[in-house]
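thread: overnight batch results

M.L. [08:02]
morning all. the overnight job finished for the chain we discussed friday. pasting input first so we're all looking at the same thing
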Amino acid sequence: NDNKVVLTPKEFDILYLLASHPGRVFTRDKLLNRIWGFDYLGSSRSIDEHIKNIRQKIKEAGADYTYIQTVWGVGYKFEELAP
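M.L. [08:03]
and the structure it wrote out:
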């Protein structure tokens, strides 16, 4: 809706990666490796918190669709609205 969404650098990187590959499912580990690097020692659940924050910020900006979809037991994917 042409509203600005303020993201942290990591949130932006996650959203950019997912949106650059619509429909492709990324596991939490794959997202961690691509965004934080192979030497990241934190929990893979930190991805869940970042995804939650991105979704909330996009919703607050006026989106009525959840672009980042959860693929249960696997990870996340970016899904565009069907025309």
